[in-house]
Specification:
Strand content: over 45%
Helix content: under 10%
Number of strands: 32
Radius of gyration: 26 Å
Number of domains: 1
Distance between the termini: 46 Å
CATH class: Mainly Beta
Largest sheet: 26 strands, mixed
Oligomer: single chain
CATH superfamily: TonB-dependent receptor, beta-barrel domain
Shape: globular
């Protein structure tokens, strides 16, 4: 390996006789305090009384144990761990939705779908500095109520889809510290303001087949309205921001065309506009970043706008498979990125007993994202299929002449799949290219501290999965992943990916 020791877990923190101790890890390949357990329950009940009517009830439940934040537990400051504790509390999620589907022969629709839903999410974050006696606890509760109505009409080669959507997010955020010795509790600044984030939308899309489906035209329009109402507790900030209200509207459209040419060649082109309104997380969160800076709120954050262009080509190879290549280019205006952000004319503030340089999400003038993607599938012989994909992306903040954050390196995979009767086998090759430091965003969001002096190394893994249909409803699957036991990290991650591991699963259902 070019970077020996990269990502090794050389220590962990243990509290001994009421004191935090930095303990040497006997096996640096074992990432202590990185595991957790999770339970997910999914139940759907479908009822079809006839007459083109269908009812579907969907219930989901998810919960977990405490989830350690391994990367924070491995962070050092002046040769000592920065944190003795850092973990997410149990993440609880309940979701309930009802869906009505109905076929009709009205002039205004052939199909109607109505979906109301409610989702309740509870999560928390807990941290304690090394040799500190106070643990900070941040609790968030989020309720999401939504309703969608979607209608579909087909007539004379035209397909029309239209509908409406309403979503309201209600957030409650609270924080306090606990003294481990005295048990005393006191209020501290919460991660988020309390508030609501409400979106409403109307949409219309149209698809038109011409020349015996050799030419397909599509167009669409969406009107969106977003309202934010957030309340801050000003006593914790060196800022006069207390109550933020925002209301924005946007009209977006798309135009597309697909040409089915002779010889199995298919060409497509798409032009569309879009926008992303800052949510409460973008606008109002307060937290210490991985780079040691403090992310603060920015009440003046505006929506980012995008103009998207795409052109693609698909070549069908008889009955054996296809090859698809797609190129895309996005121009962003008022792109939302984290940047240094003075408060009251100061570039740093006192917060929770420490001095921090302040960052905030801001709008940069212009940015661009472009890339190319390809995927294909080919039947080598009866029961044997080769398929794969590859994606390359670049992003640039044109105003500040800097790379955008969260842009992944080159990545892709190739798979060889064999199926016969009730048996299948699949061999996978996954790869990522290198992400050089010169391509990292200066905001710190790409987590440069988790990379090597050159950046994130490239990596490749080999995986094998086998399966058999035991009965009509029961399927057994076995897998061996990362067969070569490669030590690697995905881009921007603070934890090493799993080494060689075995997966056994049973699937029951239709």
């Amino acid at each position: 390996m070019d970077y020996p020791g990269f990502g090794d877990a050389n220590f962990y923190v243990k509290r001994i006789n009421g004191r935090d101790s930095m303990v040497a890890n006997d096996d640096p390949d074992v990432q202590k305090f990185s595991g957790y357990q999770q339970l997910d329950v999914l139940q759907k009940i479908r009822y079809v009384p006839g007459n083109g009517t269908e009812h579907l009830l969907n219930f989901q439940l998810s919960t977990s144990t405490d989830v350690p934040r391994y990367d924070r537990l491995q962070a050092l400051s002046n040769g000592k761990p920065r944190f003795a504790e850092w973990y997410y509390g149990p993440q609880n999620r309940q979701f309930l939705s009802y869906e009505l589907k109905k076929k009709t022969e009205k002039w205004w629709a052939n199909d109607l779908r109505f979906t109301p839903a409610v989702q309740v999410i509870g999560e928390s974050r807990h941290d304690r500095g090394f040799d500190k006696i106070e643990r900070n606890n941040y609790h968030e509760s989020l309720t999401i109520n939504s309703a969608n109505i979607d209608l579909y009409k087909q007539a004379s080669g035209h397909e029309i889809r239209y509908g409406a959507e309403l979503v309201q997010n209600t957030l409650s955020s609270e924080a306090h510290s606990d003294n481990l010795e005295s048990g005393q509790q006191k209020s501290i600044a919460s991660r988020y303001p309390d508030g609501t984030y409400t979106t409403a939308g109307l949409y219309f899309s149209h698809r038109w087949e011409l020349l015996d489906s050799k030419l397909i035209l599509s167009d669409g329009l969406r009107f969106s309205s977003v309202t934010i109402d957030a309340k801050f507790d000003p006593k914790f900030y060196e800022s006069d921001m207390a109550h933020v209200r925002q209301h924005t509207q946007s009209q977006n459209l798309h135009l597309g065309a697909v040409g089915n040419l002779t010889g199995g060649l298919r060409l497509n082109v798409l032009l569309s506009t879009g926008f992303r309104n800052p949510n409460i997380d973008d606008l109002g969160k307060t937290f210490e970043t991985n780079g040691g800076d403090l992310m603060v709120a920015n009440a003046d954050l505006r929506p980012e706008q995008v103009f998207y262009r795409e052109i693609g080509m698909t070549q069908t190879i008889g009955t054996y498979g296809f090859l698809h290549i797609n190129a895309y280019f996005s121009s962003l205006t008022d792109a939302i990125v984290p940047r240094p952000f003075p408060l009251n004319g100061k570039d740093s503030v006192d917060f929770m007993g420490s001095r921090y340089r302040t960052l905030a999400n801001v709008n940069v003038g212009k940015a661009k994202v472009w890339g190319i993607a390809a995927n294909g599938k080919f039947q080598v012989s009866h029961g044997l299929i080769l398929k794969g994909n590859i994606t390359y992306t670049q992003g640039r903040d044109l105003t500040n002449k800097a790379p955008l954050d969260h842009i992944p390196p080159l990545f892709g995979n190739a798979s060889l799949l064999y199926e016969k009767d009730k048996f299948f086998a699949q061999a996978d090759f996954l790869f990522n290219g290198m992400k050089k430091l010169v391509d990292y965003s200066p905001s710190g969001e790409d987590n440069q501290q988790y990379a090597t002096p050159d950046g994130t190394p490239d990596w490749q893994t080999y995986n094998l999965h086998l399966g058999r249909q035991l009965t009509k409803l029961l399927r057994l699957q076995l897998g061996v992943e990362n067969i070569a036991d490669l030590n690697y990290r995905t881009f921007a991650s603070g934890i090493n990916a799993p080494g060689r591991n075995v997966v056994v699963s049973l699937h029951w259902g239709i």
